[in-house]
Amino acid sequence: METLDDVLRYGCMSLLLWLAVLVIRDFCGHIRGRLGAVLAISNIAYLLCSKSAITIFGLETDIVLFPLCFMNGVFAWLFCLSQFDDHFELKSWHWLVLGVKLLAGGMIAISHFRADEPLNVAGNILSGAIVIGTLLHLVYMIWQGRADDLMRTRMKFRSIFVISVVVISLGIMIAEVWLLDMGWKRYLLPLQSASFFCITFFVLWRISGPEGIDLFVFGDAAGGETPKAAPREDRYDLKALEALVASEAYLEPGLTISVLADKLKMPEHRLRRLINQHLGFRNFSDFLNHHRITAAQERLADTDARHVPVLTIAMDLGYGSLGPFNRAFKERTGLTPSEYRRNVLSGAA
Lower CB count within 10 Å: N or C terminus of the chain? Predict the structure, then answer.
């Protein structure tokens, strides 16, 4: 078992190191690339830390690599989140989760040197709460985003990768809390190494393909989806879609691609292909926001509607609250709706 574990563990570490090199070389200018590289390196640290009798400069790996090893789960969470958002940025609440996880790690480290058992228990409880919270959040993101991505290959990879991360993370948590003390360590270590090896090989296989860039660079920076000329059999469907858009059907609150497909009386997979290949959108939410924000710009620039609250405009355009409208508007214009209205109306005056 130990030999099998060594082969899988050090083989996986080699693959992770190569993955980090590729990502840094090709995608270090994008946040997903940087997160991917940090995740690969932290995975190497975790694989080293979980293998006993390994030292670095005479010190145990647990001591040298503890911060990277301990933060591995949060880095995986952030990278997974970036796969669900074409405009992903680190926000204050992401940093808050990172800070709380670091606090838990500090408590565990201090308890190790002081032999403070209550502090160790508190640190582990806080760390476990962060892990469970991030995993539940990923499950929610999978469910919420299951129908949004119009690129089936990327959607399939995202689902497999994120589900794998959730399953492996839960398995590690269960093993560390219950199974290691039951004498299963010699079996669990090879299983751990095999899990990391499989998911690393899967990612390398995916990024080596022609669409691998989609994992790290989205939107125009990735070359975008250049709209293709519609063949004759698609032209009638495109005209029907354009007519529905012209009737402002996109303003319906809670509109989904399945509802839109029902309105057009066409299969959902066909509508996905039309929007992606012929209109150039990668996500259904981008398709909706494109039309909604264009309509918002027209309404915000209307002098006769200058006293209409921004919230009213957001609700009229199909947004459930002001927050998503503000984010979508700023992503596309660089300004908040209020700033845009002020600039446009002052220019008109």
Answer: C
Q: Could you count the other beta carbons within 10 Å of the beta carbon of residue 114?
A: 10
Q: Is the dihedral of CA 283, 285, 288, 290 positive or negative?
A: negative
pLDDT tens readout for residues 107-160: 998 998 888 999 999 998 999 999 999 999 999 888 877 667 777 777 778 888
* Positive or negative: CA dihedral 49, 142, 251, 228: positive
Residue range 2-221 in CATH 1.20.1070.10:
yes
CA distances from 330 to 87, 101, 242, 325, 336 (A): 11, 30, 25, 9, 5
Fold of 283-349: Arc Repressor Mutant, subunit A (1.10.10)
Q: Roughly what angle, to the nearest 10 degrees, separates helices 117-144 and 72-82? A: 10
Listing DSSP states for 163-209 in one string gives HHHHHHHHHHHHIIIIIGGGT-HHHHHHHHHHHHHHHHHHHHHHHTS
Rounded to whole angstroms, how far apart are CA atoms 150 and 288?
12
Q: What is the Cα–Cα distance from 339 to 330, expressed in whole angstroms? A: 10
* 3-state secondary structure (DSSP) of residue 218: coil
